[in-house]
């Protein structure tokens, strides 16, 4: 135990990202926050930025704010997120929820492959991805096909991909196991079959290096409230490759997607650029919070964040393996994201008892405890404190 704390202290002392933790609001009652992959911590800069926005900009500028910069935020902040995920300017917007972005991307992708009649989704993907794929398939007269991840976290599309496939929706990091898919390889695989790919980057954006343009990805989207720390319900981003944008028709073409927003034209003409991905009035406070979170990740550097994430997950895996627990997260660092998941009898009860000790993990149905490690805010000591609490609880139930 003492050795372990010393190891953690050494890792913290050598951590080039250690200073970032102080940039966040830290609740002294929380001994270990291992849920940054559901909701990231609150950056101090965001507190200040939103106070200024509410008081001086909303309060002081009122309607004038729209012509003083608010109206450009969905594309400006979109480009900032785009830089983090390897997307050149002009292809990314920030606006709706992730669920809405998934629906828009799937609809648009299906329309780009009108002669094909199948949509593929991972069998155990996050519910919103599966539900929306079902709905889009039903509404567009397509058939939905599912494919399961292998036990080692990899994905083989051979049985589901063919000349009927219009679009494949995939999550870069699996929300349960933390398995990280090979985005460039799978994108090529889907393209070889003549289909399009939509990537859900919720659990990888801000913590795994991503190069969307380089990988030739068609469409992608993701949350901003996890590793980008933009707050509960902060708006999601949606990317469409420049080659698709001129032909792309999305299913919710509201006035914010029209070519001249304030022309109030009788006939709808889509904006020629990424604004055609928008629908209605954006949430300005949310966009400003995304901007702060993205700037912090950008300053710290995604490569450095990824390097710390691999060390954090490696440390936690070592501790769980030493205890002989049933870890479902891949051991190969190249195949895992930034959370580690354990299958446990009584997982819900274990998570609740950890929470009573001030350690906050996630419980995921039916029997999983998920430990999220968010490199800007999670110290090595915090990770060890969290795992020790978990092991204490598990041992006491044996
Ligand atoms: C893979 C994945 N997709 C989508 C979502 C969420 O979508 P929304 O922000 O619309 O609730 C989550 C998490 O909530 C997720 O983990
Ligand atoms: N988006 C969430 C919410 O609105 C409430 C509670 C949790 C969430 C989450 O983000 C869950 C998360 N995507 C997951 O992987 O489980």
Descriptive notes:
It is a single chain. With 398 residues, the chain is α/β, with parallel strands linked by helices. The chain has 2 domains: 2-42 and 301-396, Aspartate Aminotransferase, domain 1, CATH 3.90.1150; 69-299, Aspartate Aminotransferase, domain 2 (3-Layer(aba) Sandwich). The protein contains 11 helices and 13 strands. A 7-stranded mixed sheet has the order 2-8-7-6-5-3-4, sandwiched between helices. A 4-stranded antiparallel sheet has the order 9-10-13-12, covered by helices on one side. A two-stranded parallel ribbon has the order 1-11. Helix 5 (127-140) links the parallel strand 3 and strand 4. It binds pyridoxal-5'-phosphate and (2S)-2-amino-4-(2-amino-3-hydroxyphenyl)-4-oxobutanoic acid.
Quick rundown:
With 398 residues, the chain is of the alpha/beta class. Helices cover 38% and strands 13% of the residues.
List keywords for this structure.
38% helix; globular; single chain; 2 domains; binds (2S)-2-amino-4-(2-amino-3-hydroxyphenyl)-4-oxobutanoic acid; Aspartate Aminotransferase, domain 2; 398 residues; alpha/beta; hydrolase; four-stranded antiparallel beta sheet; Aspartate Aminotransferase, domain 1; binds pyridoxal-5'-phosphate; seven-stranded mixed beta sheet
Task: List the domain count as a whole number.
Answer: 2
CATH class label of the largest domain: Alpha Beta
Helix and strand content put the structural class at alpha/beta
Helix content: 25-40%
Poorly predicted runs: none
How widely separated are the two ends? 20 Å
Q: Identify the quaternary structure here.
A: single chain
Our Rg estimate from Cα atoms comes to 22 Å
Catalytic activity: 3-hydroxy-L-kynurenine + H2O = 3-hydroxyanthranilate + L-alanine + H(+); L-kynurenine + H2O = anthranilate + L-alanine + H(+)
Subunit structure: Homodimer.
GO molecular function, one term: transaminase activity
Pathway: Amino-acid degradation; L-kynurenine degradation; L-alanine and anthranilate from L-kynurenine: step 1/1; Cofactor biosynthesis; NAD(+) biosynthesis; quinolinate from L-kynurenine: step 2/3
């Amino acid at each position: 135990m003492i050795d372990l704390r010393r190891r953690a202290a050494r890792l913290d002392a050598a951590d080039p990202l250690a200073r970032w933790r102080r940039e966040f609001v830290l609740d002294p009652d929380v001994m270990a926050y291992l849920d940054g992959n559901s909701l990231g911590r609150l950056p101090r800069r965001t507190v200040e930025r939103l106070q200024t926005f509410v008081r001086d900009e909303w309060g002081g500028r009122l309607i004038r704010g729209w012509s003083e910069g608010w109206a450009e935020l969905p594309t400006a902040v979109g480009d900032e997120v785009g830089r983090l995920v390897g997307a050149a300017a002009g292809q990314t917007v920030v606006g709706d929820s992730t669920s809405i972005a998934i629906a828009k991307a799937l609809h648009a992708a299906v329309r780009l492959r009108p002669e094909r009649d199948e949509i593929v989704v991972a069998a155990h993907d996050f519910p919103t991805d599966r539900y929306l794929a079902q709905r889009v398939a039903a509404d567009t007269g397509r058939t939905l096909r599912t494919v399961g991840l292998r036990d080692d976290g990899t994905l083989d599309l051979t049985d589901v991909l063919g000349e009927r496939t219009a679009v494949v929706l995939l999550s870069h990091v699996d929300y349960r196991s933390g398995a990280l898919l090979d985005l460039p390889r799978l994108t090529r695989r889907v393209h070889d079959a003549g289909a399009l790919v939509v990537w859900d980057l919720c659990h990888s954006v801000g913590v795994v290096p991503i190069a969307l343009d380089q990988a030739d990805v068609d469409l992608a989207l993701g949350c901003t409230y996890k590793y980008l720390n933009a707050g509960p319900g902060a708006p999601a981003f949606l990317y469409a490759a420049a080659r698709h944008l001129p032909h792309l028709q999305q299913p919710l073409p509201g006035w914010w997607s029209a070519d001249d927003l304030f022309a109030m034209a009788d006939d709808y003409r889509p904006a020629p650029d990424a604004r055609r991905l928008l629908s209605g009035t954006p949430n300005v406070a949310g966009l400003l919070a995304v901007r702060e979170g993205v700037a912090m990740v950008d300053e710290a550097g995604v490569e450095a964040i990824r390097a710390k994430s691999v060390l954090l997950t490696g440390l936690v895996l070592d501790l769980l393996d030493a205890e002989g627990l049933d870890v479902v997260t891949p051991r190969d660092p190249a195949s895992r994201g930034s959370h580690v998941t354990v299958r446990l009898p009584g997982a819900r009860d274990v998570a609740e008892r950890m929470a009573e000790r001030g350690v906050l993990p996630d419980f995921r149905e039916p029997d999983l405890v998920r430990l999220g490690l968010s490199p800007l805010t999670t110290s090595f000591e915090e990770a060890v404190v969290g795992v020790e609490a978990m092991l204490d609880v598990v041992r006491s139930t044996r």
